Amino acid sequence: MSNLPLDTLTKTAATEEGFKLEEMQIDALLIVSGPDIEPIILTRDIELFRLASEDNRLAPSIASGNRHELQGWQIVRRSSIAYAGERVMYDCLAIRQGA
To answer: Under DSSP, is residue 44 helix (H, G, I), strand (E, B) or coil?
Structure first.
C-alpha cells in the first residue's frame, strides 16, 4: 500500500488498476536496474508496464533525479535500495491525470 495520508485514502476508491483520486490514477511502480541488465519493470497496470518497458530513458532518468514524464504518467521516485552487483531497486509512484 502507498504512503498516502489516511485522510486522502478515505476519499479514495480502490480499484484493480490502482487508486483513483478524482480524475487521477496512482499506481506503484518498481524498477530494478544494473549495468549489465535490461531494467525490470514491476507494476499492476498493463499499459503502464508496456510504456515503462519501452522507454529506455526511464531507469537512467529515475536514477539521476526524482521524476520522469512517461506519456501522460508522472513517475516519482519514493526510495531506492542498492544491491550486490551494482543493481538498484527504485520504488516509484506512477501518477496519471484524467484517468
So the answer is: coil
DSSP-derived letter for residue 75 is: E
The percentage of residues in the chain with a pLDDT greater than 90, rounded to a whole number, is: 71
The model's confidence at residue 8, banded by pLDDT at 50, 70 and 90, is very low
Given CA atoms 99, 10, 28, 89 in this order, what sign does their dihedral have?
positive
CB of 21 closer than 8 Å to CB of 4:
no
All residues at 6 or more sequence positions from 29 whose CB lies less than 8 Å from its CB, including other chains: 41, 42, 43, 48, 52, 75, 92, 93, 94
- Return the DSSP state at 21: -
d(CA 32, CA 90): 6
Rg of the chain in Å (alpha carbons): 14
